[in-house]
Amino acid sequence: MSDLVIRGARPYGAGEPVDVLVRDGVIVALGAAARGGDEVDGVTIAEDVQVIEAAGRILLPGFVDLHTHLREPGREDTETIESGSAAAALGGYTAVFAMANTDPVADTAVVTDHVWRRGREVGLVDVHPVGAVTVGLAGKQLAEMGTMAAGVGRVRMFSDDGHCVDDPLIMRRALEYAKSLDVLIAQHAEEPRLTRGAVAHEGPTAARLGLAGWPRAAEESIVARDALLARDAGARVHICHASTSGTVELVKWAKAQGISITAEVTPHHLLLDDSRLETYDAVNKVNPPLREASDAEALRRAVADGVIDCIATDHAPHAEQDKCCEFAAARPGMLGLETALSIIVETLVTPGLLDWRGVARVMSENPARIAGLDDQGRPIAVGEPANLTLVDPDTSWTVRAPELASISGNTPFDAMTLPARVVATVLRGRVTAHDGVAATVTQRVRL
Ligand code: DOR
Ligand code: ZN
């Protein structure tokens, strides 16, 4: 592999510009920007070198997404590991966690190992398989978490996402097993007896539009219950896509008790609210639903305060026929990988709630720590693996759904003009995306 030099970027958006020299997937030198020259901090650059000019750009550790739906196996008409990996690389991600609600469900090591292998073959982002907590996501019987954790895919996060592990006894056992295996349970918090038929946030907007409502308590009752179950099991629990101000209060309370709880929020729950439903366009249908403006405000503050640990996209591609239909019949979910950074800038950086150091924390360091990845979310320093994301903070761009790398086009951000953009992504020294173009898929690799 040739050397890679990133010239003149500012790590974490602070301090003086630096040159970064990457060799064999590792940062080998880092020093004051030299504007050319054949060395970085005394280390001679090889003749075979790829240079990325990065003046004015911000260098961050590669992003880690704990919540991605890649739809392979089963719905390759909507996304594949290959197309989703390209979307991830373009969005600045160097690792994603692929949710288990595929067909077949990722509830055995056969499936989770396949997802891992296919991700390695594609080579654009580390695709970590999420294992199902229960067989078939049915909530009745624990899946073989141990064999999935021991497979080549080394599953370290389990979730029935799309469904809630609603039976408290099953959830309790899952937490106990997870503790002994040192893996994480990520809960889609939704009490199903409170959301039967629900398609929108329960509130004035849904009432006026005649849409069946999904009350905040459906989420919050599970968050409270799982915090207590985690406390008693001495286990860790992670809350997927927090969407209400009450969830923020509960997570804050649980952390204050010393409970090992972490939480993520999606870009769409930070930016959008249920006023978007006025048009009945199902591109805005998602689980949990878009809430009220006051919830979005509480979620933004919770990221700034550290109550919510990280941003996760819940990237959920869907076919046109599953979205362009009656609101109640449409599938929930929206794309997220390629727009996440820009929405974080719009909702948190521009208003002054988060600086670039904070962006690194919630997009990279915290998710890597929560999932137990030791090669991601690392400092930008000599000797560290070169998993990096280069951002242009001063640009803006207009989202065009057909131009995204995802096979599907269900983005609520279509035609929106958003600030900042990922310019390049580097995975173990390889440039996986640059100037809006993803690298070609690597050849088949022997594992
Ligand atoms: O909106 C959602 N879509 N929420 C989920 O929990 C699942 C996801 C999907 O798989 O489409
Ligand atoms: Zn979910």
UniProtKB/TrEMBL annotation:
What pathway does this protein act in? Pyrimidine metabolism; UMP biosynthesis via de novo pathway; (S)-dihydroorotate from bicarbonate: step 3/3
Domain Dihydroorotase catalytic: from-to ranges: 56-244
Co-factor(s) = Zn(2+)
GO molecular function list = allantoinase activity; dihydroorotase activity; zinc ion binding
GO CC terms: cytoplasm
Question: What is its EC class?
Answer: hydrolase
Keyword presence, Magnesium: no
List ligand-binding residues for substrate: 69-71, 101, 287, 318, 332-333
The source's superkingdom equals Bacteria
Q: Which residues bind Zn(2+) 2?
A: 161, 188, 241
Q: Where does Zn(2+) 1 bind?
A: 67, 69, 161, 314
Which residues does UniProt mark as catalytic? 314
Q: What is the cofactor note?
A: Binds 2 Zn(2+) ions per subunit.
HAMAP family given for it?
PyrC_classI_B
What is this protein for, i.e. what is its function? Catalyzes the reversible cyclization of carbamoyl aspartate to dihydroorotate.
Q: Which family does it belong to?
A: Belongs to the metallo-dependent hydrolases superfamily. DHOase family. Class I DHOase subfamily.
Provide the protein name. Answer: Dihydroorotase
What organism, scientifically named, is this protein from?
Nocardia vermiculata
- Designated gene of the protein: pyrC
